[in-house]
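Friendly challenge for the regulars: who can give me the structure tokens for this chain first? No prize, just bragging rights.
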Amino acid sequence: MNDKLYAVTDGGVYVSTDSGDTWVDLKEGVCVTQSYYIDDYDANSDAVLIGSQDNGIKYKNNDDSFFSNIGAGDGFDVIINYSDQTKGYAVVNKSIFIFNDFLSGTNFKINNLNWFPQIEMNTSDTAILYFSNSNIFKYNNTLQSIEELSSFLNESGYWALKTCKSNSNRIYAAGGNELFSEFGNMHVSSDQGNTWTLISENNGFPENYPRISRIGVRPNSSNMVYAVFSGYVDNLKIYYSNDAGLNWSNISYDLPNIPILSIEVDSYNNVYVGTDIGVYFKTSGATNWEPFYNNLPNVPISDLAINEVNDKLLASTFGRGVWKSTLHTSCPNNLWINDDLSGRYFRSVSNDITLTGKITGGAGTEVIMRAGSNIDLKPGFRVNGEPGTNFLAYIGDCGDGLPPEFGFQGPPAYPNALSDYNLKLSRIKGTLQILNINAENKIVRLRKFTDGDALILLLNSKGELVNEVARHTGENGVYDFNLNTRALKGGLYFVYLIVDDDVTHLQELVIPGKGNTD
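First reply, four minutes later:
Bragging rights claimed.
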């Protein structure tokens, strides 16, 4: 292009003006790092360590965005020593390195293994490191010794490894017998890895499941453990146990059917998960999830790190660098937004939202507002009309979970639940209208244009019958029927009108926030 040769790689962007004999690095200031793992330091939230694809290990400890490169190659799992922010561990390709000083780059190699071992530090003794490969190993930095721990019969911690802050003897591990195994199991050890117990065949755990991408543990209770799953199995995203894996519950709830890549749990048992499209949050005890991705790019969230001391959440992305946020706060009563908004943005309040700013941007802009009472669009409010700009404002409870999707699907071609009736969508015999009373109650208004029998049915987005709304026999006229939606999961529904065995009209009904209709 213009007598220049460009090379775009997962390690950066380069240009040559002499047909490739020499190259100039153009990646300075381009925030597109592909990060695998991230760690921070409780006493200094500015201290951050990341492992990145083709760009090695990067470290910073100041309030700026500049990272020092302290290791080349494919950086992977990383740990900052919780008692000294200048020391820690990092994986590069097949090797584990101990860093005695991140700033000077002083390090030495522990061992060469297969690709990308998982590493976890003992939570009471910084000299003890656990790492996984074809098996689980224990490294003692004081003795500079490596011990192979009990075999899992060719199953390992290749997928995920997690020590527990409240119990330094307990370790959770998940994996198969190879790095990219499709099948594996989850185990727990309560004696620093000397003996292990299989927990992925216990009560409530799914019989078949995709790769366990991460393990989360409540920092003040090692019994409270979470397993998150990659892959695209609907309603199989995250499982939870409050008894160290003896019994499990599915808490996927209304999470979208996308891979879950990372998880962090705070001391109150609130949960953050990183997905292919951003971060979601669930408060302790809730049965739904909330978007937590304001201003995040729409890219995979490879890892999360909570710093409760400094009220921070860090998120590493695969392609857009590292981001930080304050932790989730309780639902505000009211909100007044004067700023212009773009990108992905979601706010939910108990009472009122007032908007005076503009929705800017184009493709990729997705701004969603949910208020318990009112959403007031004041003078000055505008929405960019470019294709790809989405703005949604709706009334719903603050804790209602995920908002409705923008891309509403249409009804099934002809649901089996209606197979006894003729499809005659002409509205000749009557129409339906749905009126809101409040978030949980609707009025279905029937306008009959002919005498005869009328039947009103509610179907979900799969075309399955949910319930019969009403039957009416008699003269033409206008009739109102109550529809309580409290028991309905969030998503798209269809209300059908059948008059004299003809399906004459239908209306879409969107239930916000509490799950999906599948």
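The chain has no helices and 46 strands. Residues 219 and 267 are 6 Å apart (CA to CA). Your move, everyone else.
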